[in-house]
């Protein structure tokens, strides 16, 4: 489709020269690239047919005095969340925040919004921003380490929305944990939107230096907002020996289109545990990628989703093994009901010298309706000869034997089916050691199952 060019007036004003230059370059790239279409393998089953130039930015929001002034959904969520500090963003603006404990600040931990970080911690932001999720999609055979310039993708259309996110982001979250520091309580960012027919572009940058550890919870929630777009990028830098747990929970209202690329760069003997939960929005495209740069690195990639009505959920994953003796494990579970569409495209890529790679990929989908559709494309690209890699995908209805067993115990068929759906998704949550997060997700699932 044709694309009316964005103009530079839409770029966020202010900021250092290097950032302004990067925004302009990204916007020029976006205007140059075509919109991904079904001829692009990575977008074969998902088309975003919209002229973004017809949209307007989400309106500005003012800081509120206390938690009681926040949307009811945010208040409810914060009351049940055990976090050390958090930000609340409404559209492009931080409307509420809590401060880090003094002992963490004394150790050099930084947690603030990205706009403030650009002003107060420019050296650290400039070093890492755009290094893991650049404007263009890097060629995965030659992706550079953070702080250096990656090469361009052989299929430039895949970089269109990355370029848009790089150009238009106005705010987001910034976390920096110095070498050897452990942050015990999670940090959190809670994003809402409150204005239909607009777009919001945000960016998350989490840096865990060598031998540090931190957990970051990234949540999105809104009422139904027709014709609204949430565009984002998440950059996770995991230094040698560091441990980072990242949780993303997307529960936008109906009418929202969600497009986000999440990528982690994992150093030597480092561990990245990630969980992506997709429950909301009308169209959601989530890219979840791990680049295992260092020997002995480890990546756990978990996800669950429940699509009903006319929701369209697309997950595109990459486990890229660039070093020897690295391990990755991907487990995706989803449910499709009504006339929904689910898409999973997952790649395990092993570079030439990445011997002793140990990689697993499993995707399972439970179909509750004959009108629902599911497309699953697990893939392997192996360039080393001493590896252990496996992938698999299953799609099917509720197990009739399990259903019969529950019915034979006096449980009504409708209730029995809901129990099986809940148990099917619970398998992922048992691997997440965050009780308050798991309880919140279970609540969302319960509402979805109740509507199934």
Automatic annotation (TrEMBL):
From which domain of life does this come? Answer: Bacteria
Limits of the SUF system FeS cluster assembly SufBD core domain: 194-424
- SUPFAM superfamilies registered for this protein in UniProt: Stabilizer of iron transporter SufD
Task: Give the SUF system FeS cluster assembly SufBD N-terminal domain ranges.
Answer: 9-187
The cross-references to PANTHER family, in alphabetical order and at most eight, read:
PROTEIN ABCI7, CHLOROPLASTIC
Record family assignment: Belongs to the iron-sulfur cluster assembly SufBD family.
Its recorded name reads Fe-S cluster assembly protein SufD
* Species this protein is from: Deinococcus oregonensis
Upper classification of the organism: Bacteria, Thermotogati, Deinococcota, Deinococci, Deinococcales
